[in-house]
């Protein structure tokens, strides 16, 4: 089909991020780089897919101080043709409240670590899908070419508010934050931003209801919803599928003793769903290349709200 593109990005959030969001205590040992990332690399190799991995600088720093086993996997990802991009150093859920200087310091620290493993980062994704004007200015100051923090799904935001309210009622505290509602609104198609010289590469949502087409809903969501979302994902002219490293976690094998909703179905089931979805889509484009395509073609700024990029 002409004009059909697929991009896959994976946030390498470690177990500690989920414990923080779900407000649970647990031994948050490091798994994302050493155990989960290799599973993605194997799947992508089988499918001949080039993807973009968003790396948390702090986790890479700790890994390098501790023998660099995860750094070796990141180097292997680069050697296989994948892209490494910045998911910030601290992955702080209140980062959208920081001033520009503080954000810049964090981004520089992450950038240095990514370069230490051989990457040339040019893209950023904010923690918790929540960006701010200061953050975007700092990303542009870094000389990066794109931001990919927007999940334009008001429904997701409403769901997040509901979950946090329920947690508050049950006495648990989430580290997640509610500010930054505009990250959940706006254009669904990739576009050049007007406020900063960056290309924006939003994560995909369904055309009308704008339900998020991400790993959490497509690989592990409830059956009644998952089937419809999978069909929607297969039909989109431009699909940017966002996954998390935990999407390929295995509670037993990885020793995770906390019941995370992301792990409700077995790893083999989630992996088979991922393979089936991506097989149906064909070739994938990395986000850096997608950004260059959008910038080069001069796709107009506030692209229409639907998922109909003009010439992607
Ligand atoms: Zn994250």
Low-confidence stretches: 299-312
Write out the CATH superfamily name: Glycoside hydrolase/deacetylase
Number of helices: 11
Mean pLDDT, to the nearest integer, reads 86
Instruction: Name the bound molecules.
Output: zinc ion
Strand order of the largest sheet: 3-2-1-8
CATH architecture: Alpha-Beta Barrel
Annotation, overall tally of beta strands:
8
Helix content, binned percent: 40-55%
Beginning-to-end CA distance, first to last residue = 12 Å
Taken as a percent bin, the fraction of beta residues is 5-15%
Kindly provide the radius of gyration, computed on alpha-carbon positions and rounded to a whole number of angstroms: 18 Å
CATH topology grouping? TIM Barrel
Describe the biggest sheet? 4 strands, parallel
Protein structure class? alpha/beta
Query: What is the CATH C level class, in words?
Result: Alpha Beta
User: What string gives the helices and strands in order?
Assistant: EHHEHHEHEHEHEEHHEHH
Looking at the structure, what is the overall shape?
A: globular
Notes on the structure:
This protein has 312 residues and is α/β, with parallel strands linked by helices. The chain has a single domain, classed as Glycoside hydrolase/deacetylase (TIM Barrel), CATH 3.20.20.370. Helices cover 41% and strands 10% of the residues. It is built from 11 helices and 8 strands. The protein has a 4-stranded parallel β-sheet. Helix 6 links the parallel strand 4 and strand 5. The N and C termini lie close together (12 Å). Bound molecules: zinc ion (ZN).
